[in-house]
Description:
By secondary structure, this protein is an alpha+beta fold. The protein contains 17 helices and 16 strands. The chain folds into 3 domains: 14-80 and 115-230, no CATH class; 233-322, no CATH class; 358-465, Immunoglobulins (Immunoglobulin-like), CATH 2.60.40. 42% of the residues lie in helices and 19% in strands. A hairpin with a 2-residue loop joins strand 1 (57-58) and strand 2. Helix 5 packs antiparallel against helix 7 (148-173), helix 5 (116-132) packs across helix 9 (193-213) and helix 7 (148-173) crosses helix 9 (193-213). The longest helix is centred in the middle third of the chain and has 26 residues, at 148-173.
Amino acid sequence: MSSNGTATPSGKNSGQDDLYQKHQKVYVREVHGLFATLRNTAMVALLGLYYGLAWINWDGQQALLFDLPERKFYIFGLVFWPQDFIYLSALLIIAAIALFMFTSVAGRLWCGYACPQTVWTEMYMWMERLVEGDGRKQKKLDQGKRDSGYFGKKVAKHALWLAFSLWTGFTFVGYFTPIRELTESFITWNLGPWETFWIFFYGFATYGNAGFMREQVCIYMCPYARFQSAMFDRDTLVISYDEKRGEPRSRKTKKSLQAGETSGDCVDCGLCVQVCPTGIDIRNGLQYQCIGCAACIDVCDQVMEKVGSPKGLIRYTTENALEGNPAHILRPRVFIYVGIITLVFGLLIYSILTRTPLEVDVIRDRAALYNENNMGLIENVYHLKVINMDARDHEFSIGVDGLEGIRISGETDLRVMVKSGAVVEVPLRVEVDPVSIKQRSSEIFFNVRATDQPELLQNERGKFIGPVER
């Protein structure tokens, strides 16, 4: 059966034939124009950040480093720990809502300009064109003789791809192992087994995805392509072919023009298909394979300019605008997205600015409610866990207040040294004169302060249990 339910001569389902047929390589024609320039600018900027940030130092430390063995995450002078997972959650929320907002406004803007698959694929296609020429020359090479020229170009292309892939994997590992140390280990052939594994794993993943799979990742593997339409509405800017203006299509030859043939603006040149990285025809309507790269807009505008027709036969527009209705780009859902992003981002920045790299957990010994010592004072036993989340070691003094005359039993100046990233458990007894106890459960505070940095302070609440004098 065919896709519309009619029988095919072979008696087989054509949809299944399409599903299981051998993949045909898409030979993408190079295009220039406004959107191609924007796409290339985004590629250079994003790849520059990826390969450059690993080499930037900040206060003597790699600016961006995720030190998993030490459980330290350095981000431009700030040090975060696994306990700070809430900040990562906030960033993921912001990223998700931003993706929803941009999709609602301008469709697959992320896919066309900033998705890692798109960015690296553009880079690999550039290297391919550098060695083999544009799409037509690549196709001619693949269909031609397998001579020395053919193998020479193929070897040169794959050598470039492999070198760039390994550099990509090396940079990736450089965000988890200090990249200068990694470079020294590489030069001296002293890389660790896990470092070697991840360099090759990430390198060959990039080599396979960007060099070979390309549009197949977007069409078959990316989940975003499947649910992004749920965020579209009639006021979403998407790349569209103006069917009313373009149809019926015609080559507009001298013979047809002399015969008075009426036609639309589309000259049926097929260039919009040739420049599409996923190989679709945008004239068939919006399809989930479209990644919003706008290459078809650039090439169609050039054709319209040559034939003397207005640009914009293929353009960013909305469904309402195509039907001649008013378009509303800034609509309530967009403002809701902006509001959520602003709120979460504001809370994140405030939390980071007021963050104290010190945590204190107070655990009261529940084995006994309270004890009375030989001096007639009421005692409670506690265990304090002091967590130093700063980048350097600190000595901390520990005090207690909240009740008149309260103090740590046997200590006049309790101090403890805690290394960076370490957790030290401090057992202690707190004693109070029973006269000062006015209720069975009283609120007290443990004060933990760095002796060398007084502003590094944490006051943690605790409960003191005692008898009530009648």
